[in-house]
Amino acid sequence: MTSEIFLSQAQVADLVGGKPVTITIAPVASPPVASPPATSTKTAIMAYAAQLKAQGKYFSGQHTDMWPAALTPTSAAVAGAMIPVTTIESQSGENVAMLGVSLSYETDLNSWSPDVSSELASSWWAQGGLVQLTLWMNVPSSPLPGNPPGSTQASASTIHDMATPGTQVYANWQQMLQEIFGWIKTQVAGGNTFILRPWSEQNGSWRWYGAQNAQDMIAIWQQMWQLAESMGLNSNLIWMYNVNCDVGNYMSAYPGDAYVDWVSFDIYYTPLQIPAQATSGGMYESLLATGKPLIFAEMGLGSGTPPTNSVDDTQVETMMAQLPGVIGFCTWPSPYSIGSQNNCAELMKSANIVNLSGLPKGLTV
Predict the structure, then answer these.
(1) Burial class of residue 166, CB neighbours in 10 A (0-12, 13-18, 19+)
(2) Looking at the domain that runs over 40-358, which CATH code has it been given?
(3) Digits of tens for pLDDT over the chain (365 positions)?
(4) 3-class secondary structure, 166
């Protein structure tokens, strides 16, 4: 360390005349040391996904119930949302590895009960689990709030304007994203990672953004990714591309390998039917060919109304053995959930399943 000493004119004169001079050096306070940035868990999760594939294992998952989010207080909403998950634990003594959390943006930042989503995610991370975050967003028409999420497709011109800087719809869309990503930033500030599903089942016409112009949807995804990058979020986000089975157009809106970390599909059949449906039309093969980790982001264990509730561990093991590239599944709430099955306890003890207790340390902080 280099120090500088400043002398008065009288002290300089004494030194020149050969007289001794007493110099007092006051200690200099060290500059504050900035806290190191939080270590992201994304790298650990990506490495673990590769390990699961190599070992032929797969993790269990369960989506929370999104409808109790309107309950008050927040604790009641959280308890209601967790019923599909706590049911599994009470029946089997095991907890799933992945928790599915929904984040709905309807009219503004406060309309979708972000406190509920925050509590669900933070409590699961605290237990060492994985969190899949599904975004449910309204159409950013002019003026905001626009149309709430629903089954009516947005016009092609609205989708195009979302991807086109300078339009009012684009400005509305960016405003929405700033709020959504701002919330995400507060959640991952400690270093945890969301598996982010921004456009669920985007190849299906039952979503307002579904089955739209592929190039516009690619541009919208890439712009979202770039905004997240500019906000320093991508080290805490695993971007997951998602399609629905039986529809086709599985890869037409794929935004490119640089903008995707995981790939996934949604499917509602009995386990013994799923392999044939997943491979029909090349969906499974196309997603697997990306080289990205592949999961069932949303799965219904059964078909029909109501679906069968006799799924057991043998059926799940047979299904996963026929789809060896899949490293995990996350079932939708009742009547399609793991806890809705008569054989829930046996299912959660399948030979190659990884539950919450089996996840390695370091996937959360």
Answers:
(1) exposed
(2) 3.20.20.80
(3) 444 444 455 554 555 566 655 554 444 444 443 333 446 899 999 999 999 999 999 999 999 997 776 677 888 889 999 999 999 999 999 999 999 999 887 655 445 678 899 999 999 999 999 999 999 888 888 655 555 556 578 899 999 999 999 999 999 999 999 999 999 999 999 999 999 999 999 999 988 899 999 999 999 999 999 999 999 999 999 999 999 999 999 999 999 999 999 999 999 988 889 999 999 899 999 999 999 999 999 999 876 666 777 888 889 999 999 999 999 999 999 889 999 888 899 999 988 999 999 999 999 99
(4) coil
Helix or strand holding residue 134 (H, E): strand 130-137
138 and 149 in contact (C-beta within 8 Å)?
yes
Closest CA to 57 of 350, 363, 278: 350
Amino acid symbol at 181 = F
Q: What is the pTM of this model?
A: 0.87
Domain range list for the chain: 40-358
**Residue with structure tokens 């679906």?**
307
> In this structure, how many other beta carbons lie within 10 angstroms of the beta carbon of residue 277?
18
Burial 334-351 (b: 16+ CB within 10 A, else e): bbbbbbbbebbeebbebe
